[in-house]
Amino acid sequence: ISLPKILRTLQESGPLSCIGLALDQVAKINIEQGWQMGDRMLQEAVKALRALLAEGEELYRIEGVNFAIFGKMGNLQAKQRGIDLRRQLAGANVQVDKTTMPLTASLGVVTVERQVGPSQAEASTAVFQALTEMLGRAKQKGGNTVEVYPNTRF
Questions:
Q1: With contact defined as beta carbons under 8 Å apart, do 38 and 26 qualify?
Q2: Closest CA to 74 of 9, 11, 14, 22
Q3: What is the pLDDT of residues 57-98, one digit of tens each?
Q4: SS (HEC) of the chain
């Protein structure tokens, strides 16, 4: 993910939100059935995530089972979108061969309404740290939850 490039769009288009999500069940599949099955499940999960994207949203893989959806939306809209995504994912499964995996996810929401830092690189670092913090909080709460970062100026 090139956050400086993504943040540049902020100057042209207003608020930008990032909804990070960590798929909660892939590690269990990796342990129980091996990483090859986990990788196949991950590929199917990506297809399901792409199907849930709204117009103008983009899906990126951060690392491992962590993804980010970027879209032009304010903080309240992004919070609601995160809640809606969590509900949609909680009711969905992916299947490979005879193995089924629920698509529960931990979600973190970060909105950038204005860049106040001295550089896009510093703002990008702050946004990524905030996203990582929110994903961590959601996971600590047991997964299948949404955490929203309170600050919108980076």
A1: yes
A2: 14
A3: 999 998 999 999 999 999 999 999 999 999 999 999 999 999
A4: CCHHHHHHHHHHHCCEEEEEEEECCHHHHHHHHCHHHHHHHHHHHHHHHHHHCCCCCEEEEEECCEEEEEECCCHHHHHHHHHHHHHHHHCCEEEECCEEEECCEEEEEEEECECCCCCHHHHHHHHHHHHHHHHHHHHHCCCCCEEECCCCEC
Q: What is the pTM of this model?
A: 0.89
Contact by Cβ (8 Å): 101, 89 = no
Nearest to 129 by CA among 113, 108, 114, 115: 108
- Residue written as token pair 């946004």: 127
Token duo for residue 67: 């993804």
pLDDT at residue 11, rounded to an integer: 57
